[in-house]
Amino acid sequence: MTNEKVIEVQDLTKKFGDFTAVDAITFDVYKGEIFGFLGANGAGKTTAMKMLNGLSKPTSGNGTVAGLDVINETDKIKERIGYMSQKFSLYEDLSVNQNIEFYGGIYGLSRKRIQEKTAEILEELNLKDVAKKVVGALPLGWKQRLAFAISMVHDPAIVFMDEPTGGVDPQVRRQFWEAIYEAAKKGRTIFVTTHYMDEAEYCDRVSIMVDGKIEALDTPDKLKEQFNTETMDEVFLKLVRN
User: Where does the record place a coiled coil (predicted)?
Assistant: First the structure.
């Protein structure tokens, strides 16, 4: 993690009619940081992420992602970031190789670069033996790590991950977080939403959303100290009860 800001947000707000889904949130994210965006389902974290990755325009407020404006430069933002959703965004009827080639093409990689990235991903994930198998036949943990690797096929500076570990067992989740650590060590910024409070312990800093607002933001250790608790679950419960 460095002192270089790669995401800057000021009073970002999203309304749907009279309902305020995201209420004037302000925060910064730094290069190489694993930034956890935590909250219960419906807290507004996914809506906030969509504004940052160019999928939804803010009602008010402003922000930049990789130096690009979240209101006026959404197409450029989409080119500069990686994105992984809970459903992994893989085509299950295509092979491992075909998925990598497909997404490499979407991001405008040359045929030579796609071949290089395919070899790199297969080597790193130890998937050479199943490269020609359809993704639907792979174990869930392999699908998850493949989707993460593909989200970075174009070497983005920032990767947004929306509930990437939903529905997988604790062991697979821990293995997946090891892959996140490796990406962050290379200077990549990871912005991850989750409702698993134990995953906050894996993050450099954590923002906790409650009813569309950021109610707490700091390192996991400092938040536990601030709220006089031993776990992030207890921090969250105290925030919700207030």
Answer: none
> Could you give the 3-state DSSP secondary structure of residue 220?
helix
List, edge to edge, every strand of the sheet that includes 19-30.
19-30, 5-16, 60-65, 68-69
Task: Please give the Cα distance from 120 to 101 (Å, whole number).
Answer: 13
Spatial CB neighbours of 34, under 8 Å, sequence gap ≥ 6: 180, 181, 184, 190, 192, 202, 203, 204
Q: Considering just the CA atoms, what is the radius of gyration of the chain in Å?
A: 18
| Structure confidence by residue, pLDDT tens digits, 111-154 | 999 999 999 999 988 888 899 999 999 888 888 889 889 999 99
Average pLDDT value for residue range 6-12:
96
Residue 233 pLDDT grade (very low, low, confident, very high; cuts 50, 70, 90): confident
| The pLDDT of residue 168 is above 80 | no
| Beta-sheet strands, E only, within 168-226 | 189-194, 205-210, 213-218
The pLDDT of 29-40, averaged and rounded, is 92
Domains and CATH numbers, the chain: 5-89+158-241 (3.40.50.300)
What does the DSSP 8-state code read for residue 30? E
Are 63 and 51 in contact by the 8 Å Cβ rule? The answer is yes
> How far lies 167's CA from each of 11, 82, 86, 160, 231, in Å?
32, 21, 9, 18, 22
DSSP per-residue string spanning 119-141: HHHHHHHT-GGGTTSBGGGS-HH
Question: Cα dist. 19→51, 59, 69, 143, 212 in Å?
Answer: 16, 12, 25, 36, 10
Question: Reduced to 3 DSSP states, what percent helix, strand and coil does the chain have, rounded to the nearest 5?
Answer: 40, 25, 30
Average pLDDT of span 187-207: 89
